[in-house]
Specification:
It is built from 26 helices and 20 strands. With about 750 residues, the protein is an alpha+beta fold. It folds into four domains: about 140 residues, Penicillin-binding protein 2a (Domain 2); about 100 residues, Penicillin-binding protein, N-terminal non-catalytic domain, head sub-domain (Arc Repressor Mutant, subunit A); about 350 residues, 3-Layer(aba) Sandwich (Beta-lactamase), CATH 3.40.710; about 30 residues. Strands 2, 3, 4, 5, 8, 15 and 16 form a seven-stranded mixed sheet that branches. A six-stranded antiparallel sheet has the order 11-10-9-20-19-18. It has a three-stranded antiparallel sheet with strand order 1-6-7, with no helix packed on it. A hairpin with a 6-residue loop joins strand 19 and strand 20. Helix 18 packs parallel to helix 23. Keywords: Cell membrane, Cell shape, Cell wall biogenesis/degradation, Coiled coil, Membrane, Peptidoglycan synthesis, Transmembrane, Transmembrane helix. It is found in: Cell membrane; Membrane. It is a single-pass membrane protein.
Length: about 750
Amino acid sequence: MVKETFLKEVCDTLNRKKKKKTHVPFRLNMLFFVVFLLFSMLILRLGMVQIVYGDDYKREIERTEDVTVNSPVPRGKMFDRNGKVIVDNTPQNAITFTNNGYKQDEMLEVAERLAQLIEINTKKVQERDKKDYWIIKNPDEAEKKVSEKEIEALKKKHEGEQKELDKAIYQLTLDRITEEELKELKEQDLKVLAIFREFTSGYALTPQIVKNKDVTPEEFAVVSENLQLLPGVDTTTDWERYYAFGDTLKSVLGKVTSSDEGIPAEQLEYYMARDYSRNDRVGKSYIEMQYEEVLHGQKAKVKNITDKAGNVLETVPITDGQRGKDLVLSIDMDLQKAVEQIIEEELRAAKASPGTALLDRAYVLLMDPHTGEILSMAGKRIVKDEKTGKSEMQDDALGNITTTYNVGSAIKGATILTGFKEGVIQPNSVIYDRPLQIKNTPVKKSWKNFGPLNDINALKYSSNVYMFETAIRIGNGEYKFDRPLPLDPKGFDTIRDSFAQFGLGVRTGIDLPNEQTGFKGMSTMPGFMLDLAIGQYDTYSNMQLAQYVSVIANGGNRMEPHIVKEIREPLMENNELGPIVEEMEPKVLNRVELEKGWMERVQEGFRRVMQEKGGTAYTYFAGKEYKPAGKTGTAEAFYDGPERSKFGKEPPEVMNLSLVGYAPSVNPEVAMAVLVPWAYQGGRDHGANKKIGERVLDAYFDLKKNRHEEGKDSEDPVQKVENINEVLEGQEDVREEEENE
């Protein structure tokens, strides 16, 4: 029994062990199996990655970025109408830096090396630049400027705004840098800072000019020899605008921003949308600005291939670029120089006359009346040098379009034609010239009592009364001695609308910015309508006078004036002119609609002014071979010049002098406007307008004669008129077709 019990227990024990042994391997096998499955899945996944997606991931690892960089090219040149270079580009050595992904400490190290090799102007370094540099050079001291407690307070203030927090801490650090600490920076530190400042002001992968002024041959050579030690630095050739005729016409030619200025902030969006870079030089005034897109040229393009880290792997040229297209101006620079000299001499001579303390400027504009081409645009102004106290003559050619004045009787041709159009006078209408006494108004009269005058002689003698009577009739009034003179205010609009057809009081269309249209008197009192008719109420520019007299000269076409004659492709050899890209054709802005014979009446009156005894300019132009026609002007005005503040609320009365004309009187080839503001106060008229006008027309025809003798004739004026008429007829046909459509 005991034996059986023992045996049973032994069997049970063996069975338990057997069961236990069979259970453990099962778990282990399950574990191995699971591990096997996981490894199988991992191997399968790795296989999928390598076999199926391997190429994609390889491409991602090796992924590069293509960054296209534009390099500026020299601007286009400017020539005068005879092919003489006016504005060119002068090459100059330059040192540049291109940020190819360099870190701040790397750029600073290069700046330190470069500072050992070149001189650099440190005047541009500002206090903020010094503080930034001090922080870079003294990071430990800078960190102590702001305490942990202050940082914690700032964290609460800018919670969740890391950028604002960093900015606040940095600003606090800057504010606590003392003058004594900044004085620790030595001259060599400032040189490094000036260079580093240029490095950091550029844009990634875009060459930034470090120095392009006064780079000596020694500096250029030593930097070139050490380029391997100056990563990002390069030596190249830059350009600078060169003016072949000095200051002649310079204000009209305009200016270009420097490499430091780049694109003006107010025009940044405009230029960036046209593929410009922020540091590109652009035209910032007048012709340089007006024709920026022509002169700027096609940039050289280079593609930089970079890796994900921004490192440049390869540079591939795309286009070489081409300098800007050239402009051929309508200006004749020989004539321009002669006119400027005449203005200077006559302006100085006039200043020697009594009553000329306020006289300081004069303007002359010559224009082809058939094409609108500006042949000469000259102006001079006497300015006192604040340092030396001496007076000097400055270019003020822009005053022809940017300043306006009362011009006086020069506009009486427009008054006569307005009277014809309104039907208030007819050709050969006679009006008795005598003083007009309007109740409670000073006597209004001509400079002499002429008695009966017709329209032609009214122009010849410059009768004010003839023009007053014409204006009274336009205003539906009737003059009676010492009685009130009520006039319809609509007469102002009638006269001004008519004057505008000649270019007076409106934009002329000149291809230059900032043209002024003039001041229109606000009062509608009857007496001012009479003043308007003789050019003593509204103000006009000398450009408007030139356009107005051109309408008289050519028989009724208001031509759009332009100073650019042609756009040409650039050529590199010997300043030669390339093929024509665009030629500026004559453009008629409007036609003054007149009945047959009306314009001839005014033209005859203008002829008598200069060629017939008694004419207001006869003394100066009698017997001239070129047989001119024109009209003088003298206007009573109030001084409004640079000395205006000295006179308080009552500026002194002055006399403005003007002269318009053209020559020859038959088939004219040149129109002229002369304006001498604030010519004198009281005293005697020194005739500067007529003296300048005479000498200018003499110079024009003398130059033409000399060129003829040298075999350098320009186009025959008669043939030119025929050619222009063909162009104008073509334009008229186009307009008629458009209207019919």
